[in-house]
Give the backbone structure.
Amino acid sequence: MKNLNAISALTLRRLGMMLVSLLFVMSMTAQNISVKGVVKDAATGETIIGANVVVQGTTTGTITDANGNFTLTIPANAKLSVSYIGYQTVEVPVEGKSHFVINLKQSAVALNEVVAIGYGTVKKSDLTGSVTAINTDKLAKGLATSMTDLLAGQIAGVNITTGGGAPGSSATILVRGGSSIYASNDPLFVVDGVPLTPEGVNGEANPLSFINPQDIQTVTVLKDASATAIYGSRASNGVILITTKKGKLGQKIAISYDGNTSVSTNSKLMDLLTADQYRSFIDTYWTNPTTGMNTEAGLMGTANTNWQKEIYQTAISQDHNLSVSGSVGKLPYRVSVGYTDQEGILKTTNFKRTTAAVNLSPTFLDEDLKMNVNLTGAYITNSFGETGAIGAAYSMDPTQPVYATNGINSAINENYGNGYFMWMGSNGQPVSLATANPLSVLTQEQNDSWVYQSTGSMQLDYRVHWLPDLHANLNLAYDLSNSNGSKTIAANSPMSYIWGSDKTGSAEYAPYYQAKTNTLLDFYLNYKKTLGVNALDIMGGYSWQKYFDTSWSSATYATNAGQDVPRVDYPEEYYLLSFYGRLNYALMDKYLLTATIRNDGTSRFAPGNQWGLFPSLALAWKMKDESFLKNVNWLSDLKLRLGYGQTGQQDIPGGYYQYLPGFTTSGANNGAAYEFGSTWYQLIRPNYYNTTLKWETCTTYNVGLDFGFLNQRFTGSIDAYKRVTTNLLNSIPVAAGTNFTNNLISNIGSLENKGLELTLGGRPVVSRDFTWDVNFNASYNYNDVIQLTRAGTVNYPGIPAGAISGGTGNNIELIAVGHPLGAYYVYHQLYDSKGMPIEGAYGNGGLYISKHTGTPPVTMGFSSKMNYKNWFFNFAMHADIGNYNYNNTAAGQDGLVYSYISLGYLSNTTHSAVATGFNTIQYFSDYFIQNASFLRMDNMTLGYNFNNFFNSKLKASLYGTVQNPFVITKYKGLDPEVNGGIDNNVYPRPRIFILGLRVNF
Amino acid sequence: MKRIKYLTIISAVALAMFSLSSCTNDLNVTPLATNISTAATTFNNTATPYIEYLAKIYAGFSTGGIQGEDNQVDISGYDGGSQAGYLRPLWNLEELPTDEAMCCWNDPGVPDFHSFTWTSSNVYVEAFYARLYYQITIATAFLQQTTDAQLAARKCSTSLIDSIHTFRAEARFLRALSYDNVLDLYRSGVLVTDASPIGSSTLPPYATAQQIFSYITTELNACQANLLLPAVGYGPTYGHANQAAAWSLLARVYLNANTYLGTSSTQYYDSCLTNCNKVIAAGYQLEPTYQNLFVTDNYKSKEMIFPNIYDGTNLTTWGGLMFLECAMVDGKNQAVINAPGAWGGDRAVQEFVGRFTNEETNYKLDQRYSMVYQGFNHPSIDDNTQYEQGTPLLKYANYSSTGVKNTASFATGAFPLFRLGDIYLMYAEAVLRGGTGGTQAQALIYINALRDRAEGSSGFTDLEITSGQLKLPFILEERAREMFSEATRRTDLVRFGDLTSSSYVWQWKGGIKNGQGIDSHYNIYPLPATDMGANPNLKQNPGYN
């Protein structure tokens, strides 16, 4: 054992030497005195390799060698500053001495960090569950409009996929593979102690965009059930705790500005035929070989239009944030405002946001009463544009002009389409199945929303004056939103003849409204006591939360679009009541135990099924503190964690009253009435219901190991988990004749996720002038459906899922026992000797369940931050490996008949479709299940820190960032990163060039 | 000191619990929205809730949900307009596996019909079964909500109770109608009756063809007395199913009884004739002009016994008449029938055209033949991906008998679920199959009445047949000419033993161009895999395991 230690120590020293010689060649100055010294750990006496020894106020310095020694030539009156990561910096006056022994004390900062765990905090070293905390200031950032943009690829086991490149677009967050099929797979978000309303907000693509990322201090992800179970019924898919920035007691006023302006460009276009290529394609493909006639050629135009260029633009965006923080007497405060104006690369798309946040954290009664008040507000306007333009640009005949001009094409009729070209039939009427002019789709439709969102909380923490171990904590909070929006399609526009059900050229007006109010009362008592080797921390509390929402929407075909439509509200509400408690016990600060329990009641189930109990237990062993490891100096942390816990899920789509037998009326004038005599009667329908509905339960087992080397210069952790969801809330076929539906949400089935996660972080280079931080994470998750129907039934193939575009009611996935969620259900394509697919030739056995899914089994993230003197260079990248997309865009175009379907219009196609040569569209060929593994460089930033910005006292940073510079992939579609794997005309992610400035006053 | 400490802790906890425990009552909520109600707040002593619930049972045969365009669909997992409704899947199941229709769409389940390759997972097989049992279940729940005891408890007036008795009889008729579809298409299923515990997890028992047949006939015979009297033509009771609808359904069930039950008893033909005679005696008359049976104002027709109603404004769907009109036309022939859309999907194979051109010397005089579109000039379907091969059947028109076009976005008009012409054909067939209660001479009169009407409304007789020509095979031919595209063809071919036989083939039957015989288990559809998985009591039909 001793020998082994010696060897590894030797290896490390060699490594240190190499780093010294490679990276730090310092020049010496001659006229000064020469000093020598050795740097040691104050506690152990071990020499420290690679410590920084710098003459204060200069760039002169060196680092210690493999024996901890250093030599420097310096002025006799200089002061040495000696520092090393994880140790407190020491300043030593030279005072003419020539030999120094410098002892450094461990700071152990990393392990003393406090981490939020829900209803309290814990020292990082005392964590027992799988918890990742990220300080947002330490991230390599691109253009981040939402927290989800910051975190993509940063945390093992947390897979974030943005919905595309639209400004302010949504993101899907999957923690450890998702535990539900029908119920939501979204994690629970808790902002400063307030669990947010789970469903999104109508009129807002990303419900998290109301929080300005600039206001976020830390994001903590609770992953395993031993950590999440304290949130009980909402915690099955992980909990994400967001802590916003606060002022500090005694802090001087600090004003900072952070802003950027950016230019977004299209990074890739679909490989379509140009107008000339298309002309020759139609001539070749559609000429009848016997007659030599080409009946379709007459439909072609003479223009050369690149429809993709018509719909995209170079977009300019800006973002400004100003914050003031400090402390007025005993009142620490922070106030911030932010403004974001983001233009999309698809014309007419835009996202504008104004945010404000106020935090006050005063203390009273000799610091016995701490108060924390948070108020945030956001006003967001979205112009969604019409993303249908993207698919239309793929299909639209490039030989047709953008605008209708009589005389160029006989089919053009200027009376239709508001000046835009549209397909006209031989009867002089618009062709109702034809492609709508892509540019007109954008300009003739207005799809806007206006969203107000606000959260507010007041947290009171009272330390009982004569019993300081006891704290009482009261949190009162709200989270509300109010959104309005509407879609308006102009009368006589091309879409008014093609889309919707009217097709007569009428205008279309579809307004909507939604208001949500979520109110919270939380009260808990916390008692902490250390008695000898026993440390105890007990917390118990009660929580009451009410979710209320009301919404309304309408769609009318009116020539007088924009008129007010009377609003009818559809309000609904539910309540969640909870009792919860946690026990943290530490023996000798080495053996840790955490037990939590939560009893949740929800109004979404029938009396008798409303309450669910969610326990958890976790054990941790700080092995590093054992005598046999205490003196192994290169190892700075080693901790084993074991966790078990149960969490629940009650967030099912379809309303809050699904256990209740009830009736719904159609209302008047809704196109659903029945005629008796000459009177049209409204309809009353009995609603389906399930009185036995209850929680879905997810049981998680987790084993984890945390480790750190060289006084936490390199850290990491490995976690392995198994999660079993039982009593799955699922919409499954219900026996015919037993309910008022064919699929009933029932607690049937089970699902399993197994996975591994690895997180590594380190600072390979630490010196005065150059530091380098890297972070890497990788995770693997395997998901498997165990049971879907009641036991003992046979011949049930599974639940069709994954609706695709094309045909009516086509699905490409099957949820089946023994397969992962999202497994594709396709035909086995056969190929000719040249490797080209043979149309309609499929392997035996019909449809089969593919082993491929759109969810990546392996995900990785890597980020790097380098600082050299005042320069900094950061980048972040992430990779998905083993995911396969269903290339719906290609499947829908790989059918040459599609170019002309005897319906009076032509459709463009791609080069790859011409090469494939399918006559008829083959939606279900596994040819379209395509490898979509990728590595994406998310962002790269080069910047400079000014210590005296323009000779002032201001500190500033100026930086340039390129977001999405490249993607490495074999995928044949436009972008491999598609949430869920069905690739159908995704809003392309732009390449963004950002110029940013941060100034601290 | 210590005592005070504990006292404080206990009182703090107690205070917290006290102030908060009152909130646990919050878990018992009732819906806030005004469009959702419970049974107690829905049903009272006014007629409106009962008539609106009854309206829903009827509307369930027309549109897929309780909002227009099949929105807020009744059954889930299926496309509202194309799969989850009534008439469109019924039409697909009854017409696509026959010589009357072939569809060039590649939509899920559609190509299976012509090739006879459907399985228990075919989406139409599943969705239509779900629709039928949805209808059966809501009709049964209506009956369970309107017992005499409940009506008395709600203090309904005597006259209201009388009306509700009629509504209940209609609900029983509509339930029997759905059971007839179950019996005809699936041959077995489950029986949901007034005693069934809807909303519980109790699984209904398997029901054989015999059990379903007995239930339908018993129910129809029992509910007749409370149904409205037959009403000929448009009137204040339009839309309600009356006694003639029940007789018509009985006639159809009895005509097919031997097929359903695997028997060969002529007593069912007697019963068929009994019911045909009742309908005929009620005074229904053939519509003088055949085309006017299939236009927007066909509700006026005195031939209509039970209409399946659609309306471009008040009752809209992507299925039903909308589908029958739009799916049969493309842009080139859309204007012929003023279809609200041109979807270019369905058309007949050339053998159907032959029912006129090969078997009627005077087919050009037959106005029914004028609905067989000739514009494509390519009656043979050599390539099913090409819509312009084959022959569209432009039977349903979106204009009135006087040529007024419907300008709404959705089709208007009634689909005749039962009409007198069908009764005449059933009468003749029952007589030819040996039923008593009718005569061959009368049968010939009825058949020639149809054929004279087919020639026009001015007393033509060129298409009349002789008594020597009145044979069973002729009936099958005549049903093709008279009833094409009215969703009875598969039933007819099964009854005549021709659906799967190798001696009666058409293009692409069984998946090959010239057609071929197929295994006889395709005479009935399988019970859907969805219900097989949900209800272990079921027994799959032969040949589908």
